[in-house]
Write a structure and sequence with these properties.
alpha/beta; 7-stranded mixed sheet; about 30% helix
């Protein structure tokens, strides 16, 4: 058997939560060597000083992004904020494979990006070649790609639950209500009043009502599947926990469909998808059942209202919702089994 290549990778934005989770997973990946860690605010520090839980791994020190020698790398994971990511990615050598975890390359239309992200896209030419990285639905496009844009955490949870149902014509794509809840890590590591412990502890609060930036991303993909423009009702909430995400989708059924048919469609769609599991009828997806893992649990249930159903999806927002999905995509880009380095089971309790 041929020996698999070891890929030298860099992580830009290594001091953020998603960057740190890429490092955590890549450090034990059998075909990855972490060769560069970049984070401007922590340049010059050992990674263990930035994140003590990573201190046991043999990692390079954090440097400023300008100090990275790109010529020695095979791939880069980018965990920078939107608006900053495209500036850096546009300067990277074309020989590098890039897995971006920001929002900068998720929206296919630069006009939609400008509308929702407050200004024109700084690397619109790259949008034409960027591949949307929802692994289970775009494997064939991801494998040969140079630049993959990982979906947001909310879109990942929503789209894994709903795309097979829209494609199968089982639900009305024009009547979707999404109630979403996420742990506080989804807001990033930067100091913000709204994510202080005293602000979020012992409470539950909606945010981004009717204006969250993940809405157009969800609509882009559902519209693509439906073959017509779609607008969804999407409301996210902040939950006082570190990680985890649960979305509850209220849908109108088409024809005489029932929840049983929805579960069958989901099971058929994900037969060859090791990280998406369909819950049995008497089980409910929950965040504690996916914590720390790259798994997504989905389930479908009949509503008390005739002709409607409830579709629930749970994942870890930092793993399947970001860093784990990023490595899953990289595995495809590198010609590796997509499960490589990601088969750890959820942490419970």
């Amino acid at each position: 058997m041929a020996v698999q290549k070891t890929f030298r990778i860099g992580v830009i934005g290594a001091s953020g939560y998603t960057g740190a989770d890429v490092v955590r997973l890549a450090a034990v990946h059998p075909h990855m060597e972490i060769a560069a860690l970049a984070a401007r605010a922590h340049a010059g520090k050992p990674m263990g000083a930035v994140f003590p839980h990573l201190g046991l791994a043999a990692l390079p020190d954090v440097v400023d992004v300008e100090a990275v020698d790109w010529s020695g790398l095979d791939a880069v994971f980018c965990g920078l904020p939107h608006g900053t990511a495209h500036e850096i990615i546009s300067t990277l050598p074309e020989s590098l494979k890039v897995v971006d975890m920001s929002a900068d390359f998720r929206l296919r239309d630069p006009a939609v990006y400008a509308e929702w992200y407050g200004g024109p896209h700084g690397a619109a030419d790259l949008l034409e070649t960027a591949v949307y990285g929802l692994t289970e639905h775009y494997r064939a496009q991801i494998a040969p790609a140079r630049l993959v844009a990982c979906p947001g955490c909310y879109p990942t949870a929503v789209l894994l639950a709903l795309l097979p149902l829209v494609k199968a014509g089982l639900i009305d794509a024009s009547d979707i209500v999404i109630d979403a809840k996420s742990g506080v890590s989804g807001a990033g590591r930067g100091a913000k009043q709204g994510t202080l412990f005293s602000e979020v502890g012992e409470g539950l609060a909606p945010y981004g009502v009717a204006q969250h930036r993940h809405a157009p991303e969800i609509e882009q993909e559902i519209s693509r599947a439906a073959g017509a423009p779609v607008v969804v009702n999407f409301t996210p909430h902040l939950v006082p926990m570190s990680r985890g995400e649960l979305v509850t989708c209220y849908v109108r059924l088409q024809g005489k469909a029932r929840a049983g048919e929805l579960r069958e469609a989901l099971s058929a769609a994900y037969t060859d998808s090791p990280f998406v599991r369909v819950a049995v009828p008497d089980a409910l997806p929950a965040t504690q059942h996916v914590r720390g893992s790259n798994y997504c649990l989905v389930g479908a249930y009949d509503d008390r209202i005739e002709g409607r159903a409830i579709v629930i999806s749970a994942l870890d927002n930092l793993v399947k919702g970001s860093a784990g999905q990023a490595i899953q995509n990289f595995n495809l880009m590198a010609g590796l089994p997509e499960t490589t380095g990601l088969e750890q089971l959820p942490l419970f309790p």
